[in-house]
Design goal:
By secondary structure, the chain is an alpha/beta fold. It has 2 domains: 2-255, P-loop containing nucleotide triphosphate hydrolases (Rossmann fold); 270-487, L-amino peptidase D-ALA esterase/amidase (4-Layer Sandwich), CATH 3.60.70. It is 30% helix and 29% strand. The strands form 6 sheets. Strands 13, 14, 15, 16, 17, 18, 19 and 23 form an 8-stranded mixed beta sheet that branches. A 6-stranded mixed beta sheet has the order 6-7-8-3-9-10, with helices on both faces. The chain has a 4-stranded antiparallel beta sheet with strand order 2-1-4-5. The chain is elongated. Bound molecules: adenosine-5'-triphosphate (ATP). Residues 11, 16, 34, 36-42 line the site of adenosine-5'-triphosphate. Residues 2-239 form the ABC transporter domain. GO terms for molecular function: ATP binding. Keywords: ATP-binding, Nucleotide-binding, Translocase, Transport.
Length: 488
Amino acid sequence: MIVVERLSGGYEGVPIVKDVSFTVEKGKILGILGPNGSGKSTLLKVISGILPATTGTILLDGKDMKAYNARTLAKKMAVLPQLHANAFSNTVREAVSLGRYPHQTGFFSSWSELDERAVQYAMAQTGVTRYEHTPMEILSGGEQQRVFVAQALAQTAEILLLDEPTNHLDIAHQRQILDMVRKEALECGLTVIMVLHDMNLASLYCDELLLMENGCMRAIGPPHEVLIASQIEEVYQARVATYAHPEIPKPQITMMPAASKHQQRAVIVKEDFKITTDYIQLKSNIPLKTVSSAVHNPGIGWYDCLVNRSVAGDYIIKDVKCEVAEFLQREHFSLTSTVVMLTAVSTELVALNEYKAPFGGIFVVVTAGVGKAVDVSRTHERQDEPYIGTINTWVVINGCLSEEAFFQAMMTANEAKTKALQSENIRDERTNTIATGTATDSLLIAATQKGAEMLYGGPITDVGKIIGKGVFETTVQAIQNYKMKHRS
Ligand SMILES: Nc1ncnc2c1ncn2[C@@H]1O[C@H](COP(=O)(O)OP(=O)(O)OP(=O)(O)O)[C@@H](O)[C@H]1O
């Protein structure tokens, strides 16, 4: 455990780091972030004793760091500096072995089994064993960086100070080094303080983050309390946005380029839609931000082509995703920029309407296969296999929606669809109650993200009102088309 209390320090009387305090418990990782010149490396140098502290104290396991002599301190704390002054005549093994110097009584005179094990372990953990006998100078920058990390690890200290350990490393090696650091922290109780420029890596790997600004602490805490977009924007003077990591509960940050999203006004027009016997298509000349439950490219993304493909009523394919990919290739659609839904309804039964509004307006496109509609409040009573029967709804908006508005627009559209089923007296034939949808309905909201900004998409917002009316009317029309065909 390391406790830093009101620490200040700098270079020859020039104060750089001012009044910094924090605690890192044994086995925890603290990441230091901050813009260039904010004092991250200087802070690490003062903590490691390379630079003297002008004020403040550092306690290692409760004992003032000043009370340790150089050799005992080196056994306690290992440092990977940002710039490496290295005698490049060494081989990798020799460079890593330098990490064992605090454990030697006379230099290399008492090489023990323990020293050998530590060096072998450090080389293995950093993936440099195969370069063991290679001279340092012929390694790439990333390979050398891993050797320096191995050198610090070979010191087998309880506290590891790392200044930009992922410098020069490709993503696979960044992951290897940071996974190794985390494993050492979790399994061996290694306490780590590391300077990282990459906020996303810092978020993924650190228990706490310290954000530096002009030599002072701007914020400290778990990643979600430090990586707040407005705070990062202020400190770095750069526009950013945060989003959730897809797999683990850690925030991620993305840079927003200077170009304004409101620069041009792009508009989807009716001529952008095409209806063939096989599919209904929207081809946009700009990518649309899309939220959907489609079969191909579902979720949130940017796509310039939407396809609602009509398949045979007996379309039961084991690997639907694979079959859809084959269809896209056959029809010369891009796999990466096309969203695909499937319907058993023939494309001539589609309802497609435009609704103009001061903000720009929307298009609603619906195919409604309601032959096997279900009442969602009663589906728990049935044991049958899911069957095809699908209402596919697209809402394409000429406007700019917030994240919140996208999800509210989905709710608004779904409520309008359910109301249309009620209005058309579509029933769940097993329960004879009003149906709320079918077993495999799909919904898509797409927006140009240009022009008018819409913060909300609920039923009484400008965009919500028109989605409500548009989806209701268009779904009714699609249901009537379906009824007409299936009556005859
Ligand atoms: N040896 C030195 N002598 C005098 N001033 C220095 C020295 N090294 C760094 N500084 C100054 O201290 C300030 C903080 O530098 P430091 O290297 O700690 O920043 P940093 O946050 O690590 O930056 P970076 O992200 O660019 O690595 C800078 O203004 C820098 O010019």
